[in-house]
Amino acid sequence: MSRSCYRYQAVGGAPDKSMCLVADEGTPAEVSFPLANEIEIGRDQPGRDAAGVLLIDDPTVSYRHCVLALLPDGRCTVRDLSRNGTRIDGRRLLPNIEVDIHPGQVLELGSAHRFVLAGKAPVADPENAEGRTVSATGTVIATVLVGDVRDYTVLVRKGPQAEVQRCVNRVFDVLAAAVARLGGTMKEHQGDAIFAFWEGDLRGSQAVAACAAALDLDRIAVELGSDSDVWSLRGLFLRMDWALATGPVRIDTLGGAHPTGLSMIGDAVPLAFRLEKFADEQTGRILACPVTCAMAKRKFVFRDLGERTPKGFDRPCRVFALESALGGGVT
């Protein structure tokens, strides 16, 4: 790759033994870019300032493609922000998750750009716990919301797989933004399901918020399914089912001192995933557990569906259909 495709202006001075990114290593075109604290990599465009940003003249590179950071403990991390992906030694990174990269490893992005991380950073003493954050992990009462694309395997089997993936991703991107707007936390969305939650206590405000969100998200999903710019699969329809479960859960971060995600343990999590499987044309699209119903029944209309035994549970539980807000129309 020619040096002319790169443009970079370092911000501040690089420390001794700093790390750097080396492009075209071992060739006459080899060039290094110092990593003093942080370096962003993105697509070059006319008028864009190159201060602190390694710009690449390539349309397969996103405007903000990835960020490398040199941390005080000497580690270097990469966070992917792109559409086409970022790879370390050929392994594609999950978006927006910080991943360690070590000297000698290869960073790949765009159609043909390879950088080797070079240099030596100070090594932190793992036995030195001074200044370490103490975990405050505890139990909270959360309402878990699961949304699942109905008959996803049929969609994958009958539709072009790449287009099915694009359509589902577009839908989930909109729903994830709506979850944040509605006060929830999106734990993950992958494959054919999204998983979000609202934290609270025994007073039940989280259940009320989650029920309101479920009705709103269901409405949004219906609208997206009729928008050909979003759901472009002709003859294949988007239908989503939802379930709400409330109970004590323990929430912690994955990755120890350098978090990369959330973990959640508690019966409400598997219960929400299992309740969603009961949804059909007779039950309605949004189901809820008894605790959710009890906490939110002063604000919403629920229909009692009787007792059912979720897969993996020892005893049946009562299941309710969430139909509308009080005073509102039936979904």
Describe this structure in words.
It contains 5 helices and 20 strands. With 331 residues, it is of the alpha+beta class. It has 2 domains: 3-118, Tumour Suppressor Smad4 (Sandwich); 139-325, Alpha-Beta Plaits. Strands 13, 14, 15, 16, 17, 18, 19 and 20 form an 8-stranded mixed sheet that branches. A 6-stranded mixed sheet has the order 1-5-4-6-7-10, with no helix packed on it. The protein has a 6-stranded antiparallel sheet with strand order 3-2-12-11-8-9, with no helix packed on it. Helix 2 packs antiparallel against helix 3 (205-225) and helix 3 crosses helix 5. The longest helix has 21 residues, at 161-181. The chain is elongated, with a radius of gyration of 24 Å.
Short descriptors:
331 residues; alpha+beta; 20 strands; Alpha-Beta Plaits; elongated; Tumour Suppressor Smad4; 5 helices
In short:
By secondary structure, the chain is of the alpha+beta class. Helix content is 20%, strand content 35%.
Write the topology of this structure.
Layout: E1 6-7, E2 19-23, E3 31-35, E4 38-43, E5 53-56, E6 66-70, E7 76-80, E8 86-88, E9 91-92, E10 99-100, E11 106-109, E12 113-118, E13 139-149, H1 152-158, H2 161-181, E14 185-190, E15 193-200, H3 205-225, E16 240-254, E17 261-265, H4 268-276, E18 286-288, H5 290-296, E19 300-308, E20 317-325
Parallel strand pairs: 4-5, 16-18
Antiparallel strand pairs: 1-5, 2-3, 2-12, 4-6, 6-7, 7-10, 8-9, 8-11, 11-12, 13-15, 13-16, 14-15, 16-17, 18-20, 19-20
Helix pairs in contact: 2-3, 3-5
